[in-house]
UniProtKB/TrEMBL annotation, chains A, B:
Residue span, HTH marR-type domain: 13-150
Name of protein: MarR family transcriptional regulator
Source lineage: Bacteria, Pseudomonadati, Pseudomonadota, Alphaproteobacteria, Rhodospirillales
InterPro entries in UniProt: HTH_MarR-typ, MarR/SlyA-like, Transc_reg_Sar_Rot_HTH, WH-like_DNA-bd_sf, WH_DNA-bd_sf
Keywords for this protein: Cytoplasm, DNA-binding, Transcription, Transcription regulation
DNA sequence: TGTAATTTAATCGTGTGCGATTTAAATTAA
DNA sequence: TTAATTTAAATCGCACACGATTAAATTACA
């Protein structure tokens, strides 16, 4: 590798990983004022979205969809339960598993949350097509990274 | 909004923000084994990259480049200092400011770190051009989100 | 000049995220 | 049937990340 390439490799702005990292934080910041009104953090919001789409999921199922470990989800779900939005209960069919269900309040919150995605899309300044393309590219990237993870 | 659109808005996979969030974690996971060998976490690595590119920066300067608050950076920099990679010292010219400088060990680590970016690019499975395009798109997105943040 | 406003780090509290470990339950093997 | 293995959550320790606040230094400006 020549010296110019080495310098390139030290330019933060040229790191794809950094752009992803920074964009992720930027999303977090833009969500914050909207989600504060709902009494949710951003990861909590994602869990709620998942439950609004499919109620009564196991911790494991939520973890698979969100790519999170139980060590992250368990405390988060306990907070949602403490705030009265979900109910956690061992599955009588398989006592290892914990089912997460929306409470009445949790279901009701969905309406208040319905305007959020449009606000966010608006804030990105992207048209739907560009957003979709970027979304696809990032999903592919994530899939590829997971594959690559096994080799390192 | 019709019912179909509402359903769309509840599909996690269609959330651009979620793809960014998930890709960010995926990067973190892929970096972990590589950075463990250097004794660095991922955000610590980014700070070191910034210092390798430009030594002797203020906390403020690092924060601006990485879009992080002092409440995040101060403890992180203290850990880097405790590990002997940097030295923190008040600027005699302006006692409000703290200068962060690479130690000898911090400079030496650069060589060991030089192979990392190539490993990562390899793991993404992307050719350089695609990676560059995605990088540009994400930078634009971040810029736009920051602009949008003021309106919400 | 002297006070007010601004700037810079640091501190504190809350909430992720993850690896390693533990516990209990269920499944498989012997 | 028991024993070994696997699976699902939970727990613990560590390291971000941020908002709110504080303290100290500098700058603005009346």
């Amino acid at each position: 590798m020549d010296d110019a390439s080495k310098e390139d490799f030290l330019d933060l702005e040229k790191f794809l990983c950094f752009s992803v990292y920074a964009a992720s934080h930027a999303f977090n910041r833009i969500y914050k004022p909207l989600l504060d009104r709902l009494g949710l953090t951003y990861p909590q919001y994602l869990v709620m979205v998942s439950l609004w789409q499919e109620d009564d999921q196991s911790v494991r199922s939520i973890g698979q969809k969100m790519f999170l470990e139980s060590s992250t989800l368990t405390p988060l779900l306990k907070r949602l339960e403490a705030n009265g939005l979900v109910v956690r209960k061992r599955d009588p069919e398989d006592e290892r598993s914990v089912r997460v269900r929306l409470s009445v309040e949790g279901k009701a919150l969905r309406e208040k949350a319905e305007e959020v995605p449009a606000c966010i899309l608006d804030a990105t300044g992207l048209d739907i097509e560009t957003a979709k393309r970027l979304n696809r590219d990032l999903q592919e990237l994530r899939t590829q990274l997971e594959r690559g993870a096994k080799k390192l």
